[in-house]
Amino acid sequence: METIALLICAIALLLVYFYHRFKRLYSYFDHHGIPYVKPILVFGNTMEWCLMKKSLSMILADIYEKLEPHRFGGLFIGRRKVIIVRDTELIRSILVKDFSSFQDHVTAEDASKEDVLDRNLLSLRGEEWKNLRIKLTGTFTSGKMKLMFPLVRDCGAKMHSVLGNISQDEDILAKEICARYTTDVIGCCAFGLDIDSLNDPNSVFRQMGKRIFAFNIINVLRVMLPKLEFFFDLFHNDKAVKQFFLDLVKKTVKHREEHNIFRGDFLDLLINLKHDNDQKSNDRQAEEDVQKFISQVGGKYTKTHIEMTDELITAQCFLFFAAGFGTSSSTMSYMLLELAQNQHIQDKLRAEIVTVLENNNNELTYEAIKQMKYLDMVINETLRKFPVGGHIDRVCSVPYQIPNSKFTIPEGFHLTISIRGIHYDPKYYERPLEFYPEHFTEQAKAQRPHYTFMPFGGGPRVCIAERFARMEIKVGAVYLLKNMSYHVSPKMKLPVEHAPEIALFEVKGGIWLRCKKLQ
Length: 519
Prior knowledge:
Uridine Diphospho-n-acetylenolpyruvylglucosamine Reductase, domain 2; membrane; 11 strands; 8% strand; 3-stranded antiparallel sheet
């Protein structure tokens, strides 16, 4: 009995101890006079995320709204203190003007030091990131996009052919057909492989893509329990996925080197960097992009040697595959859902596509795609309403006093910007809850402050492959819409519920649409 009593007392004392520790921790913003949303013990403001009831991006958007009209405020992700930035001028300072104080992602801080896949451009830090970012800049210029355009167009034509074989009024899962298309595009443009997942939905590439974005409780635990990061690093990335990409890249690089094969694709640039770290570019736009990037990071660039090992090449290919396959297919499927619910927008967009094609001898060219202005508006409105990333994060590298504030952000502090919160703010968008492409007329864009539309991030850390992603989505949209119409299927659950257990911004039960062939 005495042992049980002592055990109960010990547990009670531990509970009291931890209660007071959390209470002291959670009073941080009170002590500094910073507005914040009251946290829940242990979970902070992210209990719904931990319980898989809500995505982290949706939670941050809710907090963004609750902190109106403040320029910034506080929140807790577990035990981590985080500043959420709301004011567009302050966002500009953090992402651009004072970038040197906030150049690293939280992703970079959390990246496993042992996992080769975490040595990608998103996760690298400091000078290593700067050097690699500069060397990769030439991959995604308009000139390179024009060279890769026929490859993307061929994948679009194949998707069009697959859709032509379905029955009239057949129901499809929009994400499935879009993901098979983007998988083929990335396989072709990054690895030089004809994956053909459009005809083989069970292809190994398609299965790997699904595994990348499956919910991983380890990633939640690494955020909630940072002191145990060393342990969670052992389980950070799916070992089968890691081995698949390591083997694939190693074999492909070896084959190209032995047979002197050059395709002008993403992998070729990395192979060139492996053999010649100081190569010069003849692409004027690449040079301009490099100079723009250097000026954004403070006009300072210390050139250092980067050894492009097969592992480092694999990490970049993995990131390109994950981003190009997952985010683009999600955007395309959300676009189809909105068009199915707004037939007048779908009809107007299809009319533009048909007209532009007729004016270009019914041939889809890189120049023809650029003429589709309403398609640009529809894609931008999709990215506004359904930002795949949902939020931007940064780590403060030096003590930083927030302009027009007494608060100094300590070194190592985390910051976040809710892209979704900004995209739904009625101060910036006339009809935030509606699908309204007119949000992106030239006049409407000119009336908004900068940094109110950031689907690809902002500043020097902006997504390097934005041009490629937009081209991929636009080509896919043309082949999906030119002689096929989409309507909401009876299988579709409305209003949409999001699936927080999936890494990307996905819909519970999927997006079901009914297809009708047009003459």
